[in-house]
Design a protein that fits this description.
- This protein has 284 residues and is an alpha/beta fold.
- It has 2 domains: 9-107 and 188-283, Rossmann fold (3-Layer(aba) Sandwich); 111-183, Trehalose-6-phosphate phosphatase related protein, domain 2 (Alpha-Beta Plaits, 2-Layer Sandwich), CATH 3.30.70.
- It has 9 helices and 13 strands.
- It has helices at 20-24, 52-61, 76-83, 114-124, 151-168, 190-200, 215-229, 245-255, 265-283, and strands spanning 9-10, 28-32, 67-71, 89-92, 97-100, 103-106, 133-136, 141-144, 172-176, 179-183, 205-210, 232-238, 260-262.
- Helix 2 links the parallel strand 2 and strand 3.
- The longest helix has 19 residues, at 265-283.
- 43% of the residues are buried.
Length: 284
């Protein structure tokens, strides 16, 4: 069994040290991923729901903090409808779009790549087998293989096919948790989205929570802000020693950029519950 890296501690071990400056910040922002962080990972995107406890806590935090946001690979519309917390900020498609004033606001360059994305997906479909499906999110697309009989073998078969097709149409493909993400060659990710929110809301502290490879971009940006601006930032990774080899590999990479860890979605609830209580005490 893989042991936790000594370089990061469980959140409960740093409530009197690392977390104190964030509680004292005047403009703390809380930014989180959705799937696998505030909602349990589900077999299909449609089955994922934010846990009732996380929803309740975040609904209260929206009233207390200058920013509570979620940045996800989901479309902004889907993210907004599933989280559905008034006052929360929703950034979808890894920073390529945002939900504002009741509608989707796209990155200026997304539409020019839409035709290439459609053509790539059309070419890819004949290669899909049982348990694979495409989730077209307009700005990007996810190719899921979680429900195949052997996901590890499916990934090995699918990856070279996807890479050949995306190169043909001038797109990019990245691996995620039991999926491949196809996206336009635009320099936007969870890190650039976090930076935009940091500047827009004039934050002096940021807590970021995430559980997957794409969350590393946000964690890198959080560290960069810490080093260049002197603000207080904290990367909280969902790291589990349970699960398959893919999960183990993701956890190992997250350890490189996390400051502290939580064990799973239930532990996220415990951390956010503690954070809310600590913020209330700080303000009284």
């Amino acid at each position: 069994m893989h042991t936790q890296s000594p370089s990061i501690q469980h959140w409960s071990e740093v409530t009197e040290t690392v977390l104190v400056p964030l509680l004292q910040a005047e403009r703390l922002g809380l930014i989180t991923d959705m799937d696998g962080t505030i909602s349990h990972v589900a077999d299909t995107p449609e089955a994922a729901v934010v846990t009732p406890k996380n929803r309740k806590i975040l609904s209260t935090m929206v009233l207390m903090l200058p920013l509570v946001a979620t940045i996800s690979g989901r479309s902004a519309r889907d993210l907004h409808s599933r989280v559905a917390i008034p006052g929360m900020v929703y950034v979808g498609n890894h920073g390529l779009e945002r939900w504002q004033n009741g509608g989707r606001v796209l990155n200026d360059y997304v539409r020019r790549y839409r035709k290439a994305l459609v053509s790539a997906l059309d070419e890819l479909r004949p290669h899909l087998t049982i348990g694979m499906w495409i989730e077209d999110k307009y700005a990007t697309a996810s190719v899921h293989y979680r429900l195949t009989p052997n996901p590890d073998e499916a990934a090995k078969t699918l990856e070279p096919i996807i890479q050949e097709i995306v190169q043909k149409y001038g797109l990019r493909a990245n691996a995620g948790r039991r999926l491949f993400e196809i996206r336009p060659p635009i320099d936007a990710n969870k890190g650039t989205a976090l930076l935009d929110l940091f500047n827009e809301y004039k934050l002096d502290a940021v807590i970021y929570l995430g559980d997957d490879i794409t969350d590393i971009d946000a964690m890198k940006m959080n560290r960069r802000l810490r080093d260049t601006t002197g603000c207080h930032t904290l990367n909280v990774a969902v790291i589990s020693d349970n699960g398959d080899q893919e999960q183990q590999n993701i956890s190992e990479k997250l350890r490189e950029y996390a400051d502290i860890y939580v064990r799973d979605v239930n532990d996220v609830e415990q951390f956010l519950d503690w954070l809310l209580e600590a913020l209330c005490k700080q303000r009284n």
